[in-house]
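Problem statement: downstream parser choked on a complex file, so we are re-checking the raw output for the zinc ion run. The parser issue turned out to be on our end (a line-ending mismatch), but while we're here, posting the original submission so the record is complete.
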Amino acid sequence: MNGEPPAPGLRKRSNDRGRDLTRPESPEPLPFPLYDNHAHLEFEDGIDQLDPADSLDRAGAVGVRGVVQVGTDLETSRWSAQLAASDRRVLAAVALHPNEAPRLFAEGLLSAHLSEISRLASEPRVRAVGETGLDFFRTGEDGRDAQIESFETHIEIAKANGIAMQIHDRDAHDEVVSVLKRVGAPERTVFHCFSGDARLARICNEHGWYMSFAGTTTFKNAPALREALAVAKPELVLVETDAPFLTPEPFRGRPNAPYLLPHTVRRIAETLDQPLDEVCARLARNTERVYGSWDEADDA
Ligand SMILES: [Zn+2]
Ligand SMILES: [Zn+2]
């Protein structure tokens, strides 16, 4: 689309060695249009890099009518906000990723960057603060205080702007829940790439927190995730790609993009043993409840 902001400096995925980088073919279109509520369109991946407009065209052709483009640092958050302002198929989420927080803290930049995130969060097509949260997989003990401080400030920003929050929770379920309980979660809180089991799904049900299921839902070694999905209240279930990561089966390991979302959606419908069109319609409704309308300039 014309007027699209140039992508920020190429973000290269690591661990490309040995991966098949050819892009999978498009799946059969979904019977009802819905949204990918978490993707990173700025990442370079695959042999044929898709620019954001191509990626969105290809997604639209299979029934993925809109995307939440998610920032992970100041540069990608600014870019996400610009893209959302220039393309009606995009809404933005802005944040400093939990793995960025300790580094920024050490450099004395955390509070300045958080102020800029706060400013971006007030833009009309920025509809979520994210991805924020806790990651104890990549960040060790010494980074935890900075992560928690950053997470708490992101929670305040989401609340102050009345927008949703997308949580990144990696190996930190209990701590994420305890921070949310201690400081109070924003009204619309989403566990992006939900990675918990039925127990965490019940906690989310109890608090009205949304669970966004990614390509991992299709993985053979993820029965606990499908059990969680079966337990989750239907009105709290969302779907995402987290592209370019976590490509759904049968293409695990190959480049991911929003047009591959239907594989995960079909697996959700199968797991729940419900008609695909009903599942799609409900996922679309849930997503609009969390982020508002893609068609409006501001919250409708
Ligand atoms: Zn994440
Ligand atoms: Zn992500």
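For whoever reads this later: Residues 144-161 form the longest helix (18 residues).
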